[in-house]
Fold:
Amino acid sequence: MSLRGGFPVSLIRYVGSRIIQSVPVLFIIVLVTFLLTNQIPGDPVSIFLSPGASPELIAEVQARYGLDRPLHERFIAYLFGVVQGDLGYSIHYGMPVTEKIIERLPITVFLTTCAFAFAIAISVPLGVISAKRRNKPTDHISRIVSLIGVSTPSFWIGLLLIIIFSFYLGLFPATGLVLPWADPETVRGAETRLDILRLSIHHAILPTIALGTLQMAQITRIERSSMVESLREDYVLLARAYGFPERTILRKHAFRAAQLPVLTIIGLGLSTALGGAVLIETVFEINGMGRLIIQAINNQDYELVMGTTIVFGVTYVVGVIVTDVLYAYVDPRVQYGGEE
Amino acid sequence: MASGTVDETVETTPSERHNDGEDLEKSNSGVRYILTQIHKDTSATIGLYVILFVVAVAVFASIDYYIFDYAFAERFLYHPERDAAGGQRLLPPVGMESIYGPGVIEHPLGTDHRGRDIFTRMIYGTRIAITAGFAATSIGLVGGTVIGAVSGYYGGKVDDLLQRFTEALYAIPFLVLIIAFMTAFGRDVTYAMVGVGIVSIPVFNRLIRSRVVSVREKEYIAAAKVAGAKDYQVILYHIIPNSFSPVLVQATLQIGVSILIIAGLSFLGFGAQPPTPSWGQMLAESRDYMLPAPMYSVWPGLAILITVFAFNLLGDGLQDALDPRIEN
Structure:
């Protein structure tokens, strides 16, 4: 079936079934997070009561937070809350966890998206060139560069970028991030929408490179091997025999088929990138989800730890569904249930 | 999974062809075969020697730490009594000069914010990186092999259940999962190893499972069964040895990945606790002195890069050498 004429009904149905399939996964995410957080040593109540609190007071606070109930009852109560979008209350910030996360999540999503855009923009052409000039100097250089890329810690790249581009050259700011859709009135040093956009790009460049390098290297490697294989296929030979120009063969015949493994690796890379965001946000002092979870742990703000962990999981699941749908879009052979 | 996965569709590997039919005379000739293959590939050879060197450094550091209580370090690497700088803080490497003064030969790579020798600390950081890398990979390897073998061998409901559960668990981005795990159990490097080991289970699980599924129907498995071998014997003596080479490749790559993750965790404060030196933690400490002492931030990262690069070089070389489909 051809999908070129837009999104057909069956694709929408496919998306729906993918979402339903992910329900058990989401359940296990909540369960694992709940059990892990419950395992944390120390009584949550003691955090906000003085050591000399009377037993009655302790019992009262425990009852207020439902800590006197058995584990499974608390889990069910928490699960019901999560389903309704209530992730509990952050003691440290004095606000609902959901609100805090809504404030921080766009930053991490923006950063991760930028990193992937950067990675794909560089790696796909690099991988194709490398495959085309297999075993020539260009190929060797690109292979070594990508091997170095997968071997370098992202946070170290971040530190080096700060030292070189912020401290020595003074080209980019060393900390912070501005969202391109932020309100000009809330951002210091910005008056118009254009200022915001400029600031946003200015701030995003270094963290994007730091976070995206690993993905770039990874995708280059897969793109290369996938293209090498694709260029050996019979239909490419046939196209050559027909005398199609090499450019057309590369673009129309070999390229599209070679993108499937690349999409798979992007889906898997999402987990690495979201985890990497924790490191990069720490290096660049960006107030996103990653920094939030580390601060929550250090502040012993456990409902916030649970909430951020769950939202990290949900973000990943959503990302994987998006790649799956793209996969179905690129590969016409994927049957997404229902009629042909 | 920061590095490429092994191609899972490999039909027969040389070691398997070796074993197919005739039983196990694998181990010795297998290892020798792999070594000769490595020597044919220049980059794999370089990788192997760099790894041997780093491991030797780690062994030296461990012996000195556990048995001699840093006696070697003080004798050969760093001499407090002859220290011209007198433990001056944030000295630059030899040949460079900063506001804190010129570099001195006692501290070839300079000193940190407490006047400690960076070179010596890096040597001792090797201990944590190598131990953690190998330990985490072993945990992942054993766990993944058991789950993958059981799941692939029995198929059906067992397979479904195990695969769904591992899949679901890994829906949490692994660094976040390890951080949550370490918050629950403990911040020390031991838990970092266990955490990284657990998250690398699915890598080996997937690999072994696909191998088991493809090997399951082979004649020699049927022969072993007819000869009265029990299920676990078939898995242990026939199926696992026959998956040896792809697992070896993946394990090599995974050690590099584990070292990267563990460095990242220590950078965030989840790992070896001070004063025990680790590369990630040195980088975290250097963050506060990037402006006056930029080279402090360079060395530990370089150590991570070289070590991980060596494992990736060896892993890639092994993959090419052991995969007969690739003609280069």
Notes: Chain B has a mean pLDDT of 80. Chain B touches chain A through 50 residues (CB under 8 Å).
